[in-house]
Amino acid sequence: MRLLLTAVLTSVLAITGTVRASDTTTTTPGGPPTILVLGDSLSAAYGFAQADGWVALLQERLRARGLDYAVINAGISGDTTAGGLTRLPALLARHRPALLLIELGANDGLRGLKTAVLRDNLTRMVQLGQAAGSQVLLIGIRLPPNYGAAYERAFQAVFQEVAAAQGVPLVPFLLEGVAEDRGLMQADEIHPTAAAQPRILENVWPVLAPLLGAGQPNND
Q1: N or C: more exposed end of the chain, with fewer CB within 10 A?
Q2: Which of these is catalytic: 23, 40, 43, 191?
Q3: Any catalytic annotation for residue 41?
Q4: What is the pLDDT along the chain (220 residues), one digit of tens a residue?
């Protein structure tokens, strides 16, 4: 089964530093509640227009269903959990998000980061979000078997362990149904295409929808 992350192309995902985010504005007090997506290239719409990415599609779905949220895309291609942990306090202060979606860890895995460090970084980000009053959703990623079965299992388990320990919901695998489909991957074989973005949103939506607030219309 073909998976997202290919060892021979590690440097492509790990060193790309292009910012494709909408986190440069400040949330206006009294405006709609904010959903902050803290991620890497998988959220930053790497290789195609940001308007076609799953984060932008999320904003469109919320609007279409009458759910009054402003989505802030704080995805940066090449980011790691350490980078996200460094960026997060200022983002929380600037946007005061009602919901924080954490989509980081792929680049940590590509670099063979110790899973204990990955766990610590994710835990601290979740705790920062909770301390700021945000509901937190953790988004998992998987590695290919060429990193070794033991590391692959330990890496994947980190997301499950952090979600359970911190009491937050988990999207088990962001690229479920995408990474296995060559037609939904770009030529570099590590980034999904624009055509894959609706499926990625469908992977996130069932876990996100219950967090959107009681009494909101059409939040199924």
Answers
A1: N
A2: 191
A3: yes
A4: 444 444 334 333 533 444 444 555 666 677 899 999 999 999 999 999 999 999 999 999 999 999 999 999 999 999 999 999 999 999 999 999 999 999 999 999 999 999 999 999 999 999 999 999 999 999 999 987 688 899 999 999 999 999 999 999 999 999 999 999 999 999 988 899 999 999 999 999 999 999 997 334 444 5
Residue 29's identity, in one-letter code, is P
43 is catalytic: no
Given the residues 41, 43, 77, 134, the one annotated as active site? 41
Residue type at 132?
A
Contact criterion met (CB below 8 Å) for 74 and 36: yes
Q: Computed from CA positions of residues 96, 206, 85, 123, in that sequence, does the dihedral angle turn out positive or negative?
A: positive
The answer to whether residues 92 and 72 touch, using CB atoms and an 8 Å cutoff, is no
List, in order of start, the domains of the chain with CATH numbers: 7-211 (3.40.50.1110)
pTM of the model: 0.88
Q: Is 120 a catalytic residue?
A: no
**Collapsed DSSP state (helix, strand, coil) of residue 186:** coil
Q: Which helix (H) or strand (E) holds 95?
A: helix 81-95
Give the C-alpha separation, 86 to 88, whole Å.
6
Rg (CA), the chain: 16
Token pair of 55 as six digits: 């984060």
Whole-number Å distance between alpha carbons of 158 and 181: 25
At 27, list the tokens.
Answer: 């949330």
Total length of the chain: 220
